[in-house]
Specification:
The structure holds 2 protein chains of 2 kinds. Chain A is α/β, with parallel strands linked by helices. Chain A contains 10 helices and 10 strands. In chain A, a hairpin with a 2-residue loop joins β9 and β10. The longest helix of chain A has 16 residues. The radius of gyration of chain A is 17 Å and the shape is globular. Chain B is mainly alpha-helical. A two-stranded antiparallel sheet of chain B has the order 1-4. Classes of the chains: A alpha/beta, B mainly alpha.
Chain lengths: 240, 299
């Protein structure tokens, strides 16, 4: 590891509401160009980890560096402007804004006047969004909202895209599309940190993975190695 | 008589709507009722009075004077609202819901007493920025003041509509009102957007203060209370947090109040009772108001 990681998480502790110790010293790295996944069950701390990285939650201990810069304690909007996009769990599109306006908000801090290339790119990745530009985001289906949330994040031209449970509640065929797009975005140069309960899909798409259990990283390895790990197969892939 | 009352109702309604927008904008983004808003509007009217006292030259009678008065009062009231947010609400943003509400009542009392003690305990006559002339449209007597009042209010509302719907910052305001946390993830500085919301809401309140003074001829330290509470009623009636709802609610309430005064015997004594009965009935029967239906977010 000669090149410093794009995202470097060191010994992160986050306590929720002064009681629930959701993260207990998590360390993880994402290098430029990778797709890395964090798998774990409901309540393992996956969402807390992403929220702490993007500044929505404040850690009690530990540090996060992004592109070599310490971002711990910085406000959310400033971290986002550095090129770290976070697509939250449950999509969180702006329901009373149109599809086009949602995308415009994704590019909020960019100063270029002409964003037509970015819109075209998003509409090429997700043609359904192009057909529904004027529709209110709150009236889209769950899968379309996931696509919009991802498209909106891409409008910022991020260096790192963090996706929290992108497959949650979606039909298998939609999940296929979403994972195809994740691979494609990555090939186009965006580094991806993926958090999933759907361990099989996540590991298939990733080059490396971490297993998070009750706030601690218990395993980390290449995705293929994790796939053949007896414990992972039993606990997360439902295989013997 | 109906036409006459309709004109009076639209005039009153246009003032209520402007004030109601201030409540609804703030509620939309912070889910709090800014009870100090009635005092912001009162201070707005006193700004125009102060300018008239100390620099009458810049407030000539006529449209120019009116526009100058509106601009200065809007700036004064808007900035005051931003200062209130900064010092009385922002420190409480992560506190219990009730805390900023109580803080806003405190600010309201402080402002009212400040004007009472340091400015005037009496009614002060408001500058006649527009000469009051009476003319008749289809049998209804209309005064120039009423027309100016309606035109100014409608102009400001159209300006607000353009700002909210078509500018990037206006869209960011709506995004923050939909989902403050996610707006931050887009690189939107939500604290700045909140401050901007208070600026815009306060400015509309300040304009309402000037129009109030113009219409009633005099202003007093406690003038904000009644129109404030009624505009709040209007905002709830239309659907609190909903911008079109605030405008609709303001006009409905204004027209209802004036019609009641005109058609019910001794109705003008009962008009406040009617307004607040509306509030109670809306809260009982349709707490989300006329237009206040949120689109459910699919998960």
């Amino acid at each position: 590891m000669t090149e410093p990681a794009l995202l470097d998480i060191q010994g992160l502790h986050t306590v929720y509401g002064k009681k629930i110790h959701a993260l207990k010293g998590v360390s993880a790295q994402v290098r430029s160009g990778e797709i890395v996944c964090i798998i774990g069950n409901n309540g393992a701390g996956k969402t807390t980890l992403l929220k702490t990285v993007s500044g929505v939650l404040q850690p009690d201990k530990g540090a996060v560096r992004f592109a070599g810069e310490a971002i711990t304690g910085q406000p959310t909007h400033r971290i986002a402007r550095m090129g770290l996009a976070h697509v939250p769990e449950g999509r969180h599109v702006f329901p009373r804004l149109s599809v086009a306006e949602n995308l415009e908000m994704g590019a909020y801090f960019r100063t270029e006047r002409d964003l037509s290339k970015d819109y075209d790119h998003v509409f090429e990745l997700f043609p359904v969004l192009g057909r529904r530009k004027a529709q209110l985001a709150g009236t889209l289906s769950g899968g379309e909202q996931q696509m919009l949330a991802m498209g909106r994040a891409l409008m910022a031209r991020p260096r790192l895209l963090m996706l929290d449970e992108p497959s949650m509640g979606l039909a298998p065929v939609v999940v296929d599309t979403i994972f195809d797009i994740i691979r494609r975005i990555n090939k186009e140069g965006v580094t991806v940190l993926l958090v999933e309960q759907n361990a099989k899909r996540a590991l298939q798409a990733s080059s490396r993975g971490y297993v998070l259990e009750t706030g601690e990283i218990v395993l980390e390895d290449k995705a293929e190695t994790l796939c053949s790990d007896a414990k992972v197969r039993k606990a997360y892939l439902g295989l013997q | 008589m109906f036409l006459q009352q309709l004109v009076n109702g639209l005039t009153l309604g246009s003032i209520y709507s402007l004030i109601a927008l201030g409540y609804t904008l703030v509620y939309g983004i912070l889910v709090m009722i800014n009870f100090a808003h009635s005092e912001v509007l009162m201070v707005g009217s006193f700004v125009a009075l102060a300018v008239f006292r100390f620099a009458p030259a810049i407030l000539p009678q006529g449209p120019v004077g009116l526009i100058v008065a509106l601009v200065l009062s809007m700036a004064g009231a808007g900035v005051l609202n931003v200062v209130i947010e900064r010092f009385a609400y922002r420190p409480l943003r992560h506190a219990q819901k009730l805390a900023p509400l109580i803080s806003s009542i405190g600010v309201s009392i402080v402002l009212q007493n400040a004007v009472f003690l340091w400015v005037s305990t009496q009614s002060e006559s408001f500058p006649e920025l527009i000469a009051a002339t009476q003319f008749s449209i289809g049998g209804a007597g209309v005064s120039s003041l009423q027309l100016v009042c309606m035109a100014s209010a409608i102009g400001l509302m159209m300006g607000l509509h353009f700002f909210i719907e078509h500018t990037k910052v206006g869209k960011a305001m709506r995004a923050c009102s939909d989902d403050l946390e996610t707006a931050g993830l887009m690189g939107i500085d939500s604290s700045r957007i909140i401050a901007l919301t208070f600026l815009v809401g306060g400015a509309l309140g300040g304009a309402a203060g000037v129009l109030y003074g113009l219409n009633y001829g005099s202003i007093k330290y406690n003038l904000g209370f009644l129109p404030g509470v009624k505009a709040f009623t209007a905002a709830v009636l239309g659907g609190i947090g909903n911008i079109r709802g605030a405008v609709l609610g303001g006009f409905i309430l204004g027209i209802m109040e004036v019609m009641a005064a005109g058609y019910i015997p001794r109705g003008s004594d009962w008009k406040d009772v009617i307004a607040f009965s509306v509030l109670i009935f809306v809260l009982l029967l349709r707490p989300s108001g006329i237009l206040g239906e949120k689109i459910a977010e699919k998960v």
